[in-house]
Design a protein that fits this description.
Its EC number is 2.8.2.-. Keywords: Transferase. The chain is α/β, with parallel strands linked by helices. It has a single domain, classed as Rossmann fold (3-Layer(aba) Sandwich), CATH 3.40.50.300. The radius of gyration is 18 Å and the shape is globular. The N and C termini lie far apart (about 35 Å). The model has no long low-confidence stretch (mean pLDDT about 95). Bound molecules: adenosine-3'-5'-diphosphate. The site of adenosine-3'-5'-diphosphate has 21 residues, from helix 2, helix 5 and helix 11.
């Protein structure tokens, strides 16, 4: 992967870019056979909205409740056809995650009423986080200036597609009882409350002490420390700054205006839009 040219690192499928090494076409093809179960725990997040944070929280909740989970990232599109077979034989309850657009999530999740936790983040901090991540991950294009990446993000020419298309897709599910939408900003504001809400949503029963323990182990600082302990320098890649409002250190006035206008055009007056204040 290290010697791959930037333009080979992403490929397009049905109009959406995907990372060639992590999510090759055969992985996405095999997803049509994924049989979701009613008690699966599914996490959905557009890239950089807090996916790894919530994977950490969900793993802690589930192991506290006695479930044994496999190591590594639970993203369904990262699984090869072979490892997807292994997942199909795993005992309940299983943990899955995805960055896929809601329309591309295998239909069996809907058909089996699998509950989905959806994490969103305001678009300005999301693009800043994505920009830094791109430049730190060898399997993604690395030679992009901030201005170029910003304009790619605005036109949806980034891995997993347009932020706004994802948001509009989820806007239709705001009242679905099998969908819980949380924002990065509300997680930052009240992690304890959010852990409780997430645990209740998936029908896990935790004591107040267990909820407190999990929230305490899921702060940015604690997660950064345990990730670097486990993975060294690479462990830092998913834990950069962990703040709300870092966009102010990157956006030009014109970029801020452009984002505001796009946000207005696509999400103003919507329920999800109201949650994504920045
Ligand atoms: P920043 O780049 O703004 O720091 P994802 O996991 O979806 O790739 O998202 C990564 C973003 O979530 C990064 O944002 C990362 O620092 C932040 N993050 C990870 N763990 C966090 C935590 N425990 N608390 C707050 N933010 C966290």
């Amino acid at each position: 992967g290290m010697t791959m040219k930037d333009e080979e690192k992403l490929y397009k499928r049905n109009g959406i870019l995907y990372p060639t090494i992590m999510s090759p076409p055969e992985n996405l093809d095999a997803l049509k056979d994924l049989e979701a179960r009613g008690d699966d725990v599914m996490l959905v997040a557009y890239p950089k909205c807090g996916c790894n944070w919530m994977v950490g929280v969900l793993k802690k909740i589930m192991t506290t409740c006695g479930y044994t989970l496999p190591e590594g990232a639970p993203l369904i599109e990262f699984h090869s056809p072979e490892t997807q077979k292994i997942m199909s034989q795993m005992q309940s309850r299983r943990l899955f995650a995805t960055h896929l657009h809601p329309d591309d999530i295998p239909v069996s999740f809907k058909n089996n009423n699998t509950k989905m936790l959806v994490v969103f983040r305001n678009p300005k901090d999301t693009v800043v986080s994505y920009y830094h991540f791109m430049n730190n991950i060898p399997v993604l294009p690395n030679d992009q200036s901030w201005d170029k990446f910003f304009s790619n993000f605005m036109s949806g020419e980034v891995a997993w597609g347009s932020y706004f298309d994802h948001a509009l897709g989820w806007e239709k599910c705001m009242d679905d009882p099998n969908v819980l939408i949380v924002t990065y900003e509300e997680l930052k504001e009240n992690l304890l409350e959010s852990v409780k809400k997430i645990s209740d949503f998936f029908s896990f029963s935790l004591t107040d002490e267990q909820v407190q323990g999990i929230a305490g182990e899921s702060t940015f600082k604690v997660m950064l420390t345990s990730s670097t302990t486990a993975y060294g320098k690479f462990g830092k890649v998913f834990f950069r700054k962990g703040e709300v409002g870092d966009w102010k250190n990157h956006f030009s006035e014109a970029q801020s205006k452009q984002m505001d206008e796009e946000f207005k055009k696509k999400l103003e007056g919507t329920k999800l839009g109201a949650k994504l204040k920045y």
